[in-house]
Amino acid sequence: MTIYYQPANLDELRTVAKEVGINDINTQQIALKGSYKEYLFADTNQLIIVKNGFMTGHTFGSGVYRMPFTNISGVRVDFHLLSGYFEVSAGGMQNSPKNYWSNDNDSPEKSPNTISLTNGEKAGFVDAANIINNLIAQVKNPVSQTTSETDSVTELKRYKELADSGVITKTEFEAKKKQLLGL
Known about the structure:
Elements: H1 10-19, E1 30-33, E2 38-42, E3 46-53, E4 58-68, E5 72-79, E6 83-90, E7 114-118, H2 119-140, H3 145-164, H4 170-181
Antiparallel strand pairs: 1-2, 2-3, 3-4, 5-6, 6-7
Helix pairs in contact: 3-4
């Protein structure tokens, strides 16, 4: 399922996606365009920020920032009155405050891990940040049904041994059994 918050930019997003090796944009969970020629793509494994054009410091070519979710601490949107930025936090990367109106290195359009935003893009990037943070949590802490079932069975066996040895009563064991089995 691809999420498009800016349907008017779909053709542009497809073109940029192909330039960075994404042959089918429908494989992406997120495909968004920031204020300048800054783009965010995310599938279930990685995040890609693409920066094109003079305003992003790329007169010729583009800057492509790829990061697997396992290396990302989190993402956030920092927004003020009329402008702000989307930012990726990862180990070894210094996140310092950015100024949308700056032309120096503290501007979000020149930083590889940020995307400049105005009010028009804000809502889409806030939703994207929530989705990406959830994807990061899933990748870093995979919880499978099999694991929780195995843990319940192991815990149930342990309580059965305690009941058989007389440490807990049969009534306490039955109550714990119902709790673990969800009865």
